[in-house]
Amino acid sequence: MDPANQLLWRDLLRARYASDGQAGVRRTLEVMGAPLTGLALEPETEALVQEYLPEVSSTG
Q1: 5-43: string of b/e by CB count within 10 Å (b at 16+)?
Q2: Is 41 helix (H, G, I), strand (E, B) or coil?
């Protein structure tokens, strides 16, 4: 597994949203923070986060 592979993170975000809703997405974002430190979110990842958590901004 490549911890910086955002395609895998997006799959996990979708699965967690399907099973646990916004709480699952928030927990996943907490976990993915360390592996993605120093990397910008890919546009697809950012769009998915905004879809599931519209009140969250990846820039702040």
Answers
A1: ebeebbeebbebbeeeeeebbeebbeebeeebeeeebee
A2: coil
CA distance 55 to 26: 12
Q: What is the pLDDT of residues 27-37, one digit of tens each?
A: 999 999 999 99
CA distances from 35 to 6, 23, 39 (A): 10, 20, 9
Q: Which two tokens stand for residue 58?
A: 């990846």
> What's the length of the chain?
60
Question: Is residue 9 helix, strand or coil?
Answer: helix
